[in-house]
Automatic annotation (TrEMBL):
<dbReference type="GO" id="GO:0005829">
    <property type="term" value="C:cytosol"/>
</dbReference>
<feature type="active site" description="Proton donor">
    <location>
        <position position="197"/>
    </location>
</feature>
<comment type="function">
    <text>Catalyzes the hydrolytic deamination of adenine to hypoxanthine. Plays an important role in the purine salvage pathway and in nitrogen catabolism.</text>
</comment>
<feature type="binding site">
    <location>
        <position position="194"/>
    </location>
    <ligand>
        <name>Zn(2+)</name>
    </ligand>
</feature>
<comment type="similarity">
    <text>Belongs to the metallo-dependent hydrolases superfamily. Adenosine and AMP deaminases family. Adenine deaminase type 2 subfamily.</text>
</comment>
<dbReference type="InterPro" id="IPR028892">
    <property type="entry name" value="ADE"/>
</dbReference>
<dbReference type="GO" id="GO:0000034">
    <property type="term" value="F:adenine deaminase activity"/>
</dbReference>
<feature type="binding site">
    <location>
        <position position="275"/>
    </location>
    <ligand>
        <name>Zn(2+)</name>
    </ligand>
</feature>
<keyword id="KW-0378">Hydrolase</keyword>
<feature type="site" description="Important for catalytic activity">
    <location>
        <position position="218"/>
    </location>
</feature>
<dbReference type="InterPro" id="IPR006330">
    <property type="entry name" value="Ado/ade_deaminase"/>
</dbReference>
<dbReference type="GO" id="GO:0008270">
    <property type="term" value="F:zinc ion binding"/>
</dbReference>
<dbReference type="InterPro" id="IPR001365">
    <property type="entry name" value="A_deaminase_dom"/>
</dbReference>
<keyword id="KW-0862">Zinc</keyword>
<feature type="binding site">
    <location>
        <position position="14"/>
    </location>
    <ligand>
        <name>Zn(2+)</name>
    </ligand>
</feature>
<dbReference type="InterPro" id="IPR032466">
    <property type="entry name" value="Metal_Hydrolase"/>
</dbReference>
<feature type="binding site">
    <location>
        <position position="276"/>
    </location>
    <ligand>
        <name>substrate</name>
    </ligand>
</feature>
């Protein structure tokens, strides 16, 4: 089965570029930029990837990204991910970035965007991976801060295709960000939203009805609301599920409890993604393998998951056909 999974062409639609920072690169950059990490060794850093919930992960994720400073650093971080994705037969990626975690450190929006974009172009040229970029607002910060971030990014509008919402979910519902998402839509941007990762099904409904989200990131808590499951199935709203993330952040006690198989059986348009791979113990193939083994997914189900990743991408029909 591992060979079958490895050979499947896949798209990855839920991947935070900041969350691809491997400890080895973190130490290299810490040394180069003279920024200190709260760990003495790579092994110590990896050992700290033992989380109780989303917040305990986010605390470490924001602390670690402080070593990524220059345009070249953002380029190197992004290219390292693309090489890994290429090795797993990922043919298309739609990558999140969190500009507020950089502008707060006085790194200009332009530096972040230029570093990531030049790597995406190189990946397309040299590896044949197509990529798009999605700007995420940090939901634990204010709606005003999200608004200001969008204004800072709009001069570089051609470098990203959409906006999303991530960070600490509970207590920061989609309804907090209606105005900035309306402005994003007015600028022709696609809309996605993390919802129903730790938060209740109502946050998924808010993301759809108030933000006009075209895709829901995670969305696993929809399973507590049969009427919502029915709606998501009828409307074929894509759900970008991240199984290893959900288990490592204790959304489920172990993979055998993960609802992804039931979600497929309910007719939901589910995809498999890695979220923040080094932190959660695997890239996209390891996520496929983990759910296949724990839930005994068939080849047909694996093919469906991979197909869903292309049909849920922000690609034209012609672009999808070329990749499928
Ligand atoms: N959830 C919310 N915010 C995040 C995540 C996540 O899984 N990963 C990186 N930022
Ligand atoms: Zn995420």
């Amino acid at each position: 089965m591992d060979d079958f999974i490895a050979a499947l062409p896949k798209a990855e639609l839920h991947l935070h570029i900041e969350g691809t920072l491997e400890p080895e690169l973190a130490f290299q950059l810490a040394d180069k930029n003279q920024v200190s990490l709260p760990f003495a060794t790579v092994a110590e850093m990896r050992a700290a990837y033992d989380f109780q919930d989303l917040q305990s992960f986010l605390d470490l994720y924001y602390a670690s990204i402080s070593v990524v400073c220059t345009e070249e650093d953002f380029h190197d971080l992004t290219l390292a991910y693309l090489k890994k994705a290429d090795s797993q037969n990922v043919r298309h990626t739609e990558i999140f970035f969190d500009p507020q975690s950089h502008t707060a450190r006085d790194i200009p929006m332009e530096t972040v965007l230029n570093g990531i974009t030049s790597a995406l172009k190189q990946g397309e040229r040299e590896l044949g991976i197509s990529s798009r970029l999605i700007l995420c607002f940090l939901r634990h910060l204010s709606a005003d801060s999200a608004w200001e971030t969008l204004q800072q990014a709009l001069p570089f509008r051609e470098q990203f295709i959409g906006v999303g919402l991530d960070s600490s979910e509970v207590g920061h519902p989609p309804s907090k960000f209606v105005k900035v998402f309306e402005e994003a839509r007015r600028n022709g941007l696609h809309i996605v939203c993390h919802a129903g990762e730790e938060g209740p099904p109502e946050y998924i409904t808010e993301a759809l009805d108030l933000l006009h989200a075209e895709r829901i990131d995670h969305g696993v808590h929809c399973m507590e609301d049969p009427a919502l499951v029915e709606r998501l199935a009828v409307e074929q709203i894509p759900l970008t599920v991240c199984p290893l993330s959900n288990v490592r952040l204790c959304v489920y006690p172990d993979m055998s409890q993960h609802p992804i198989k039931r979600m497929l059986e309910a007719g939901l348009r589910v995809t498999v993604n890695s979220d923040d791979p080094p932190y959660f113990g695997g890239y996209v193939n390891e996520n496929f393998t983990a759910v296949q083994q724990a839930l005994d997914l068939s080849r047909q189900e694996l093919i469906q998951l991979a197909r869903n990743s292309f049909t849920s991408a922000f690609l034209t029909d012609a672009e999808q056909q070329k990749l499928l």
